[in-house]
Amino acid sequence: MRSNHDIDYRIFGEEMQCVEIELDPQETVIAEPGAFMYADHSVQMQTIFGDGTSSGGIMDKILGAGKRLLTGENLFMTAFTHTGGGKAKVAFASPYPGKIVPIDLQELGGKFICQKDAFLCAAKGVSVGIELQRKLGTGIFGGEGFIMQKLEGDGMAFVHAGGHIIERSLLAGEILKVDTGCVVAYTKEVSFDIQFVGSIRNTIFGGEGLFYAVLRGPGRVWLQTLPISRLASRIIQYAPQTGSRREEGSVLGGLGNLLDGDM
Hints:
This protein has 263 residues and is of the alpha+beta class. The protein has helices spanning 58-70, 136-141, 200-205, 228-238, 253-259, and strands at residues 8-12, 18-23, 28-31, 36-39, 43-49, 76-82, 88-93, 98-104, 111-115, 119-123, 127-132, 147-152, 156-162, 165-170, 175-179, 183-187, 191-196, 211-216, 219-224. It has a 6-stranded antiparallel β-sheet. A hairpin with a 5-residue loop joins strand 1 and strand 2 (18-23). The longest helix has 13 residues, at 58-70.
């Protein structure tokens, strides 16, 4: 039997997905601020400090919320509770093109580790904290993989990642080398480490960064084809700069630049 709220859900869409959660009376789902899409009239929203799971004093709650800041998240979360009778629905949308992955924490031993901006929403009772890599080398060179989010509990949680999602099941001792930005999540049994790419030629001309994320089984790992950092760098690369020629790829680009005095 679950101690967290037991929720039903449906995922809609292909590239810009949303998850619709069905709530029974007095059931609650928590979400990151800004993820909300729509809700039935009987669903009431409340802003909570942290993830609402801390039962200690004010200092425990401040500490828990402070840990969320390390992952780049907000001090507060939003809780959506069905206050009426029958069934009610609330939906949350993905922030950029990619996939929403449903995670049953009860099936994964009560703990799930994901990239720091992956969490979307979860059943009330799921704890959202941080997972710091213990090895010094991983901490110094791990980049996006150093500070991860940790989801604990026995309820349903939903994470989001960019592009297409690939799930791999690793056998005991099996090793998978991954770009650090492409690691979405892994189960608690998986060992995470950082490895130097190798030769000076690879480092300078390889274009793939200086380090791999090394995942060692047993366990399950989730990988994404489009890390948000990679997407952002591409947008910045092709964004028009001050004084640059505009619409270079269009038929009318030259005419527009001429009229603007750029030619």
